[in-house]
Amino acid sequence: MADGGGGGQQAAPAAGGVMGTLASWGGGMWNYTTSTLNSLMGFEDLDVVNPDSGQAEHGSTSDVQQLQGVDEAERQKAFTNYRDYIGMDITSLVTLPVWIMEPFSILQTMAQIMEYNEALDKASACEDPYERLAWVVGFCVGTYGSLERTWKPFNPILGETFELELENGTKFFSEQVSHHPPIGAGHGENTNWTYDIVSAPSTKFLGNSVEIYPVGRSRIKLRKTGEEFSLVPPNTKANNVVIGRTWIDTAGEFTVLNCTSGAKCSLYFTPCGWFGSGRYEVSGHIYTEEGRKVLALAGKWNSHLDMVKCDAEGDPLPGAETVRLWTCKPKPTDDKYGFTYFARMLNSCKGINPMPSDSRRRPDRAALEAGDNATAGAEKYALEEMQRAERREREKRGDAWQPRWFRPNSDAKIYPIEYPPDQCPLWEFNGEALKREKRPAKPDDDFAGIDFCPWQYPEIHQYDDGTPDG
C-alpha cells in the first residue's frame, strides 16, 4: 500500500488518541547501515538454511521469536493480496498487519550502530593507518549483531525524528526527510569522529521471497587524522515469506573505503549453505593503496570479528597476534521481540523529554510495546491518514516540504564505491538539533506514546469530537 503523502515540520505537540484500523509496510532504513536488513519479514521462527532439507540448523531462539497465532494458511491467504506486486519494489506498496511488527521505528534501527561506537574511538587512537581502517570495519560489522530480529519496524512518518545521547558523549540524531521515496538521514558524533548516513533502500518481491537492496550512503570521518571512510554493505534476502519457514540470509561483498588514502577493506559474507554451512561467516582483507594485502579479517557477523597481520598472499604471519575488533554483547533471553539491551534502551523514554517528533512518542509504537495490537493498528492507520492530510494541505497551499534538521547537498563529492545521486540523494546534517536548548524531564517522567507531533500543520488534525489536536 502506498502510505500517501505528508508529514511536516515540528510544531506545537499534537495530543495522542488517534484511531484507525490498519498498518502499512514501507520505509527507509539502514540501517544502516544496514539498519534493518534482517528485520523486514517475520511470520515464523527463523531457519538459517535450506528449509526443505529437513535437517536445517535453526537460529538463536533468544533472538528469533515465533509469532503467535500466525500460521501458513493465513500467509497463503494474505498472499492473494500481494501477488500482483511480484517483481516490484514494495518498499512502500504492501499492506501488512501489525502483528508482524516490532515496537521500533526504522529511525531507531539506524541508531543501533552506535552500540559499538568505542571501535571508532580505538580507530582514532590507532597509529597504524591499516589497523585504523580495520577498527572502522569492526564498528560497521558490529551493527549486524542486533539485526537477527525478524519483526518489521514501523515506517517513519515524514518529519519524524529520533535522538540518542550516550554517557560517553556520543550523540546521534535522525530524521525522515522524504516519504516517496522513503529516505532517512542520520548523524552521529563525539570528540573523536563523525558518522553520517542517508538511507534509501529498495526491494524486489519475488513471490515467496523478498530481495532487499540497502541503497544508502554512510561516511565516517576521524577528527584527528581527517580521514574519511565510506561503506557499502551486501544485499539481504528474506526467503519463504509466504510458504514454508521464513529464513533470512545476508551474503556478498561488504566494502569499506578509506576515501582519503585509497586503502580498502573487502569483507565477504558467506551465503548460508546446505545444513547450515557457512552461516554467519565473514572473511576478507585490508588492502594498501597499491592493492597489497596487509591484514586478514575473519569471524561471524553475529558474534565477533578478528584481525591478524598477513603476508602478500593473505595468510596470517607466523606468530602474529590476533586482535579482536568486535565482540557481540550478551542479549536478553526472554525478550518477545529479540531486542538487545541496547535496543531496549533506545526504546525507553524514562526520564527523557524528547522533541514532539521523536519516534518514542508514537502512539502506535507505544501501544504495540504494551501488547495492545488492536490499538497499535488503529493508531498506525490514523497517523497515515494525518500524513495524507498534510500532503493535501501542502498541495492546497502550494507549500514545499522542507526537512528541519537536514538539508540537500548537491555539491558533495561522490566516491567510486557509492551509489549515484539519482539512487541515493545527498543530504547533510545542519547541526541545529544538537545546539538547541532541551526541555528538562523529571526522573519519573515517561513520554512514550504521548503528544507525538511531526506535523507541518498541526492545526488541521482533529479529534473524533472535531476539536483540534494541538
Automatic annotation (TrEMBL):
Gene Ontology CC terms: cytosol; membrane
Organism superkingdom: Eukaryota
Region (Disordered): 51-70, 353-379
GO terms (BP aspect): intermembrane lipid transfer
UniProt xrefs under SUPFAM superfamilies: Oxysterol-binding protein-like
Regions of compositional bias (Basic and acidic residues) in chain numbering: 358-367
Signal peptide, first to last residue: none
PROSITE patterns to which the protein is assigned, alphabetical: OSBP
GO molecular function, one term: sterol binding
Biased composition (Polar residues): 58-68
Similarity-based family: Belongs to the OSBP family.
PANTHER family: OXYSTEROL-BINDING PROTEIN 8 (PTHR10972:SF136), OXYSTEROL-BINDING PROTEIN-RELATED (PTHR10972)
Entry protein name: Oxysterol-binding protein
Organism, as annotated: [Myrmecia] bisecta
